[in-house]
Amino acid sequence: MELTSAIANKIVDFIYEQSGYHSIVCDPSARIIADSAKTRLGVVHGGSQKILTGNQDTAVVTAVDAEQSGGSLKEGFSLAIKLNGAKIGSFGIAGPLAIVTPIAKVATGMVITTIRDEEIKDTIRDQVQNLTASIDQAAAAIEEMVASSQEVASIGMSVAEEAQRGHEQVKATEEILDFIRRVANQTNLLGLNAAIEAARAGEQGRGFQVVAGEVRKLAEDSSRSANDIQVILKNFRDTIEAVAAGVSQSGKINLEQASNTQDIAEMVEGVKKVGHYLSKLADEL
């Protein structure tokens, strides 16, 4: 992180408030970016230029130097601001050397501490933003899962209802088959009676006897078909009952899953609020 004017101004204003001595902070080009006196911003400082372009870390103006300069210099002390071994600027303060020299050393330490503190805050902000984004994505995915689970549960219940209606229709069909079977039995009985009457009629009833035989055969075929259909319907009914039971169980499970997923969604929403709160706190750091 670079030395910003915001950090620099915070330091020089604090030093002036606490000590009453004016100070400046220069960027790597020796340009003044913070001045507690607010009179030299943007000016290139000679002493800082020597520090930042040369091998020296300090620049000193003694009382004698200040007096001999005719007022162009002030007694004071300037010191390089180093971060990870590199010069990133300088701090200068005007006043009696015995007083301002230790102040300058403390101030440069404050600058570095503030820069590192801002770096940590930036990292926290980035992490919170990433966390918030991840939580938002998780919340969206959970909400989609809730909707999907509810939809699946709804479909499962609809299928169960349809299966129940199918079961009822099978029962109705069985009742119709019972009716057909009774008609077949009655038809068979009528055919048998007709055959008896034809036998009594002798030669004249022979044609009627043939018809009576066909009626009985039709009745037997109807009864046999009804029995076959009854077997098929029983198997179909058993299948429908099994499907209905399975769908009903699945629907219950889906509803439970939807409920559990909803609970998770609510928890994620709570975490989401915490993330947004952390984000707000990070912005206020």
TrEMBL record:
SMART domains: MA (SM00283). The keyword Nucleotide-binding does not apply. This is Methyl-accepting chemotaxis protein. It comes from Desulfitobacterium dehalogenans (strain ATCC 51507 / DSM 9161 / JW/IU-DC1). Residues 122-285 form the Methyl-accepting transducer domain. Pfam families: Diacid_rec (PF05651), MCPsignal (PF00015). Keywords: Transducer. GO terms for cellular component: membrane. GO terms for biological process: signal transduction. PROSITE patterns: CHEMOTAXIS_TRANSDUC_2.
